[in-house]
Design brief:
The protein is of the alpha/beta class. The protein contains 14 helices and 5 strands. The relative contact order is 0.06.
């Protein structure tokens, strides 16, 4: 009878019956209560660890052996950004000064173009008229300053009147010819050529004419072992392996080199040129090497009289102080220019 009733009990009733039987066994209820209390206190109870599922059981020794991870140091806070002061507004130029007018006329012009009314056009034209008048006043003042100051007057530095200028240029040419003849007495010219070079063919008669007019000794040097038309074997020497050509760092033929014993070697010209051009290059090379008397140099460069050279400008930078005083500035520059005029 009792068995039949048990078979008819539903699942939940069976569980309840088993629980009642277990609780009826002596000591079992107390053991269950103790384990439940211990599990609750240690946090290892099923309900506290239900998220572990089937892996709720772990060896307590493994838990003890797991060392806690060290805490990562908190990075220090970055220093505060310095506060940058707002840039000061540029100072506006005073009205009717040149900077003010330069800005104003651009504004008036743009307004007149964008909105071409009669009023806008007149405003621009009036401002332009005032600027032109100021420019004319500057030009008149500049002319007066030049006329009354020999250091600024170009006609003092080198004549501008027709007769005086013609006479000065004649003196310049005379001094240059004297330099060429002076160099012909103590120097020679090396003429490098190649028989296949068409410009060398044209330059050969020029070298012959120069030697005849000035007395320069000219040595013809062949780069390919052959002569030019009109030359015999004794009229040239061969530059074996182009050794001299390379040693002098020559670039092309024809080339002319001036040689002054014992150790002055100057490349005078590359390419074909007329006699006058070649003479001018010989003069300049001699002046650059200080190979002629100073009086001849000064006369040959008369057109450059009073021009401040680069080396003098470098001295001005190192010796003269910066100043906005026009009188002091003029005094310093007069001294620099006067050294080249006197």
């Amino acid at each position: 009878m009792t068995r039949k009733k048990a078979e008819k009990l539903p699942g939940k009733g069976l569980i309840a019956l088993l629980a009642a039987i277990c609780m009826a066994i002596p000591g079992f209820a107390a053991q269950v209560d103790g384990e439940t209390s211990t599990a609750a206190n240690t946090g290892n109870g099923f309900f506290n660890r239900k998220t572990e599922g089937w892996f709720f059981y772990k060896d307590p020794r493994e838990l003890d052996q797991q060392a806690p991870e060290p805490e990562k140091p908190v990075p220090p806070l970055p220093p505060p950004m310095p506060q940058v002061a707002a840039p000061a507004e540029p100072k506006k130029p005073e009205p009717f000064t040149v900077p003010w007018m330069r800005q104003k006329i651009e504004i008036l012009r743009d307004n007149a173009i964008a909105n071409p009314t009669k009023e806008n056009a007149r405003a621009y034209m009036y401002m332009q008229r005032l600027l032109l008048d100021m420019g004319d006043n500057f030009a008149v003042a500049g002319m007066k300053a030049v006329e009354n100051d020999p250091y600024l007057n170009e006609s003092v530095r080198f004549p501008t009147a027709t007769s005086a200028r013609r006479s000065a240029l004649w003196q310049v040419d005379k001094a240059r010819d004297a330099i060429v003849k002076e160099m012909a007495k103590k120097a020679g010219l090396w003429f490098f050529f190649d028989s296949a070079c068409i410009h060398c063919h044209a330059q050969h008669p020029v070298m012959t004419m120069l030697a005849r007019d000035t007395g320069f000794a000219v040595r013809n040097i062949s780069e390919d072992g052959k002569g030019l038309p009109g030359m015999t074997a004794k009229d040239f020497v061969v530059d074996n392996g182009r050794a001299t050509f390379k040693q002098l760092a020559l670039k092309l033929t024809p080339a002319v080199v001036m040689v002054v014993p014992p150790d002055n070697v100057m490349v005078v010209a590359h390419g074909a040129m007329a006699v006058d051009e070649l003479k001018a290059k010989i003069v300049q090379a001699a002046i650059d090497r200080d190979l002629v008397p100073k009086e001849l140099t000064d006369m040959a460069e008369l057109e450059r009289r009073g021009i401040v050279p680069a080396e003098d400008i470098a001295k001005i930078k190192n010796t003269m102080k910066d100043t906005d005083d026009p009188k002091e500035l003029v005094k310093m520059l007069q001294q620099a220019i006067g050294n080249r005029l006197n």
